[in-house]
Amino acid sequence: MAAAKKAVLGPLVGAVDQGTSSTRFLVFNSKTAELLSHHQVEIKQEFPREGWVEQDPKEILQSVYECIEKTCEKLGQLNIDISNIKAIGVSNQRETTVVWDKLTGEPLYNAVAAPVSPGPSDPAAVVPSGSSVPAAGASSVWLDLRTQSTVESLSKRIPGNNNFVKSKTGLPLSTYFSAVKLRWLLDNVRKVQKAVEEDRALFGTIDSWLIWSLTGGVSGGVHCTDVTNASRTMLFNIHSLEWDKELCEFFGIPMKILPNVRSSSEIYGLMKAGALEGVPISGCLGDQSAALVGQMCFQDGQAKNTYGTGCFLLCNTGRKCVFSEHGLLTTVAYKLGRDKPVYYALEGSVAIAGAVIRWLRDNLGIIKSSEEIEKLAKEVGTSYGCYFVPAFSGLYAPYWEPSARGIICGLTQFTNKCHIAFAALEAVCFQTREILDAMNRDCGIPLSHLQVDGGMTNNKILMQLQADILYIPVVKPSMPETTALGAAMAAGAAEGVGVWSLEPEDLSAVTMERFEPQINAEESEIRYSTWKKAVMKSMGWVTTQSSESGDPSIFCSLPLGFFIVSSVVMLIGARYLSGMP
């Protein structure tokens, strides 16, 4: 009986999904894309100072080993033979920066994290010259702010008429991307400086650290990354698909410490320890690219939106590198094989999505759990003219207005917490529409539908609202683990593995839940235009950075400063006079 079951399952593929808050290992059937088993381990984030976000690379690596072992145990309990696992893919949080010693295998500093920042949605990354940016404390959740001064000094060296950083990388100069984090480490951590001088240092994003460690570490570990992760470092030329000498010189990064850049689907090396020793690691994708592949967005103009703390929208632009006129990022979507073409994407982000639900729970206390918001919104079915703009630390794409702050407007005596809950969900949808409108303008391919994933997609009211506000269908796969699935697909399809076909006719049909617009187009446009009016009302609240930065200096107030200085002078004078004979 057991033998028959094993035979039916056929080849399996595992996927490491390493995120900002947890690590998971999932195993899929390569013929049906069915998820068979998984295990998850929470990861700690460290905040050594306000605005600093770090993680322990060794804890991350240990969590991967633990997840693999526990998942294999669970498969054994299901009478599934783990020898059927033919390949492993890696999906990871992007931009987070690790430097380690290649002789000892020890990290030289904690991983400098970019927890969930939307990248270009850091107003500091894209505001016009001379504009103010939000106070540091306002956006510490989204940014590791230690590199802000590094960014400011570097930006002065970019000619106004030749932003070669953006033209080569598709990225704005920002605290978010790896190059400035690495520059900070080189400037401030003596252990890193010394290791570079002695040719002991290796740099990588989380995927590089994991693959090097899993394939042997100090005993022949493979130091590599894939094109999607490399494209988020600000050191990688997305046209030539190589580390760029001019960019490395600009940031002062020695090229000898950089990993080899490979495709997203090829055998990088073999597992050297644990239950899956000898299994090839053959897929690697940054998390948002992995979700794009897992959603099977292989055609030009197909887009997916991942709903989490923020939202990440990626639109496949095909083999064409489209540069945005509306503040979106140009990034590498995937390259599924050494000899396969590279595909590009436009990426836009909503800074505050799930975060607004947590704000209602933790700050206002109008809900006790995140799930409760759907119940409240369902009770009224409308915001009753109430609009919520969650510009907690400025407005992001497409406005780039750091002076904005969050507002709830359109209140009447009739408004209650249910209407505010409904308005909060609408806010996520309106922000998504603004990004999709920008994508449509940039690539000229109107979306026929939006594919969605992420934790918030379990909220049916939210999904229906999204369809109504976009006025296109919203499509949600019944199997929500699209990020891990994308990594598994890349691994199983690799040359030398060949257990997962990516040909359109061979891709497993995925059961989808479809939400169609249920209001007319005119009503959709009226609600959207009223939202835009609310957005305009949110602007201009912060006139100077110091007004919110909480500068402790008593001399921020000139009258108070003058009073204290003059008082001290008078006191000294009095004591001097009293000491005279």
Report on the architecture of this protein.
With 581 residues, the chain is of the alpha+beta class. Strands 17-18-16-15-21-22-23 form a seven-stranded mixed beta sheet. The chain has a six-stranded mixed beta sheet with strand order 3-2-1-5-14-13, sandwiched between helices. It has a two-stranded antiparallel sheet with strand order 4-7. Helix 11 (287-294) crosses helix 16, helix 12 (354-364) packs antiparallel against helix 14 and helix 13 packs across helix 14.
Helix/sheet category: alpha+beta
Number of helices: 19
Report the mean per-residue pLDDT as an integer. 84
The helix fraction, in percent, is: 25-40%
- For the report, how would you describe the main beta sheet? 7 strands, mixed
Tell me how many strands there are: 23
CA gyration radius, whole angstroms: 26 Å
Backbone shape? globular
- Poorly predicted regions: 1-7, 115-143, 544-565
Percent of residues in beta strands = 15-25%
Major sheet: order of its strands? 17-18-16-15-21-22-23
The N- to C-terminal Cα distance equals: 111 Å
